[in-house]
Amino acid sequence: MKKILLALLAPVALIACKNNTNGEQKEETTTTETAETYSNPIPVKFGDPYILNDGSGTYYMYGTGGGAKNGFATYSSQDLVNWKFEGQVYDAVKEDSWGIKDFWAPEVYKFDDKYYIFFSAQWKENPNNELENFMIGVAVADSPTGPFHDLEDKPIFDPGYPIIDANVYQDDDGTFYLYYSRVCYKHPVESEVAEWAKKKGWYDEIEESWVYGVKLAPDFKSVIGEPQLLLRPPLEMDNQNAEWESRSVTSHEVNRRWTEGSYIFKEDGKYYIMYSANFYGGENYAVGYATGDSPLGPFTKANNNPILEKNTQDGGDVTGTGHNSLVFLDNGKIYTVYHGRTTGSGKERVVFLDEIAIQDDGQLTVKGPTTTAQPMPLDGGE
To answer: Can you name the residues that pair with 213 across neighbouring β-strands?
Structure first.
């Protein structure tokens, strides 16, 4: 992994993919049961959580909502379990930002002693009054707690359709890549699932979101070349990933299929791209992954997907698990941070942290979602 790309990482009439939660949350929060264990959920009310390892022994968590208004807030921690609210780090109103509302899915990266926050928002330039006019921008700061200032007074680029969920990766040769999701809005796709739903009289069409990748300019102000389609929902219903990726349709929840919240990393020469499928606001939101030999694919989806999903079928009360990213620790462990819902949290998204493993055959497996006592991630500190 390069430069601390450590972390984490969409609905109708603004079911694009997220939700914007406001409200103050300034107290320090904790999940520690004893000095040796913790339990989920971590009481941070973020959607789309992302964790930055600053390299100083302090971790910073960013996400959608979590006490921010018209922007983003952050929490800090020395152990990944007990988190302190550090306040709002990006304020679009003060910035007179290109974005006007629905500030979603921030990810923060440290490069050359500067901090860059990539995020999604509704673009104020909207001559056709589109309901979903999302673009991706970037802001910069000297500190992980901000304040972050827009790098430009416009999004990074306009591909001709609304986009969300930025994820950035720097390959071994120094090349930067930007990954994002085209939202479902006005993107109907013919498939066997769409035909099935139409025959049942449920939906006339099924809209889909797709994941793309493109080279990112070193100054982060533009992209290089044309975006490449990397992931999309399966066309055929007998595809091994079709059942779990289509549950929002087949449960008669909504006429959309999602591929969003991508997160890419490299291990043993293989590129892994993780993604979330189904409606973020429903119980079927879940995580899968695909692998490839190049940062721009082609990628092949895994046969053990989904690797993270609701546990209600096993007697648990966790649903809506998704939009994850990873944290690689010096002790050799890897953790995935993601949002979910419980009976106690209701419709509000809360943060989960669970261990993830790369098996000898290259498969990813997640020990979660958990709500019972787990060993502290840092084994008493790093």
So the answer is: 179, 228
- Provide φ and ψ at 150, rounded to 5°: -55, 135
- 117, 62 in Cβ contact below 8 A? yes
Q: Tell me: the pLDDT tens digits for 150-167?
A: 999 999 999 999 999 999
Integer Rg of the chain from CA: 19
What's the pLDDT at 34?
54
Maximum Cα–Cα distance for the chain, whole Å?
57
Q: Are 121 and 137 in contact (CB under 8 A)?
A: yes
CATH code (residue 123): 2.115.10.20
How many residues are given for the chain?
Answer: 382
> Are 296 and 228 in contact, with CB atoms under 8 Å apart?
yes
Print the domain residue range for 181: 37-375
Kind and range of the H or E run holding 26: none
The pLDDT tens digits for 331-356 are 899 999 999 999 999 999 999 999 99
159, 203, 210 from 196: Cα distances, Å = 31, 9, 20
Contact, 3 vs 170, CB < 8 A? yes
What is the structure's pLDDT at 381? 45
Q: 7 in a domain, yes or no?
A: no
Average model confidence (pLDDT) across the chain:
91
pLDDT at 111 over 70: yes
- Please state the φ and ψ torsions of residue 263, each to the nearest 5 degrees: -145, 125
**Total domains, the chain:** 1
